[in-house]
C-alpha cells in the first residue's frame, strides 16, 4: 500500500542525526492512501467501493476481479483471498462439555490458560498480582469451586512481556535517584542501576508453576530477546531452577504447538488411549497485529477483525518486513499459516476479545489477551468445546465469567 505516513528507512538514514526523530504516529492510515496491486510485471492502482471494507494491509496475497479503466487504474468488483487453511480433524464435532472422565474414572484436564503482560518489576502491585496468579493456578487460594476449576487447567501459555520494559538510558527511576544524581561523583564510582530482582522473581514464579502444570513462555517486546521476528526464545539458564523442569518450555514467537489430549491415570502416568481430539495452538506476542492495526482506521475495523483476516490470508505478519522487522528467509516463510489452528492466541493487546471463526467445517477460536498487570485477566479456553472463560485476579478478589 502507498501510504504517505508510512515510515521510510531511507528518510531515517538521511535525517540530520543532530536532531531527535519525531515519535512514530499511532496510525499511518490517512485519506491519501492508495491500494496497489503488484506482481513480477509491475504494479497498478486499485480503485472501487469494495476496497473500503476489505481491511487490506501491505503484503496480502489477493486475487482481484474487475476491469482496466484506461487511465492506469483497475476498477475492482470482487476480491479473492486464500481462505482458511486445511485443518486436522475438521470433520470432528466439538463437544459442549470440557470436564469429562477417562475410561478409568479419573478426570481429564479440560482447559488451557493464556496470559500476557505480567510486567514483573514495574510496580510492587504487579508482583503481588502475579503471586495471586501463581497461588490460583497451583490451587493454593480460592474457594472449593475455584480450586476445582483451576484443577482442570493443564497448561499455561505466557504470551510475552513477562518483564517490565526498561526506561530510557540514564533516566532516573524515582525521586531518590534524582537526588542521588545531583551529588558529585568520582570517576569510576558510578554504580549500575541494573537489578536482577525481576528475573529472579519471574524464575521463582515459573519454578512454582512448573511443579503443577506445563508452562510455555514466549518472549515479548519488553523481554530480553531479539526484537526481530521470529523472536528467538530466551536462554533457559536465565530462569534458574525452573529450567530444570521439562514442563517449563521456552519458545520463540510466533509458535505453533500440537497438544494431544492425554488422560492422566491414577498413578500419574499418561494414558494416550483417550478419545479427546488433538488441538493445534498458534500463539504470538502481538507484534504483527499491533503493526497491522496502524494500517486501518480505529473504527469500524477492530483488532479482532484483523486477526480473523490473517486466518483467511493464511499469513500471520503480512506487513513484515515493510513496517515490521523480520529475519530474511529465502526457502520458507515461517509466518505462513499452512494449517488452521484450533486456538489462535494473540497477547499484549489493549483489551480482551474473542471470536469463533468458521469456514465450512474449519473453525478456530481467536483470543486477544490483554496485559495481566493492567487488567488482572487470565483467559481459559476449553480444549474440547473451545469455549472461553475469563478469570479476574486481584490481590483480594477472584472472579470467573464465561
TrEMBL record:
Keywords: DNA replication
Gene Ontology CC, one term: delta DNA polymerase complex
Gene3D superfamilies attached to this UniProt entry: 2.40.50.430, 3.60.21.50
Bias (Basic and acidic residues) ranges: 180-189
UniProt GO MF annotations: DNA binding
Stretches that traverse the bilayer: none
Compositionally biased tracts (Polar residues): 190-199
GO BP terms, alphabetized: DNA strand elongation involved in DNA replication
Record-linked Pfam families: DNA_pol_D_N, DNA_pol_E_B
Domain DNA polymerase delta subunit OB-fold residues, every copy: 1-78
PANTHER family in UniProt: DNA POLYMERASE DELTA SUBUNIT 2 (PTHR10416)
Family membership: Belongs to the DNA polymerase delta/II small subunit family.
Protein name: DNA polymerase alpha/epsilon subunit B-domain-containing protein
Native source species: Lactarius akahatsu
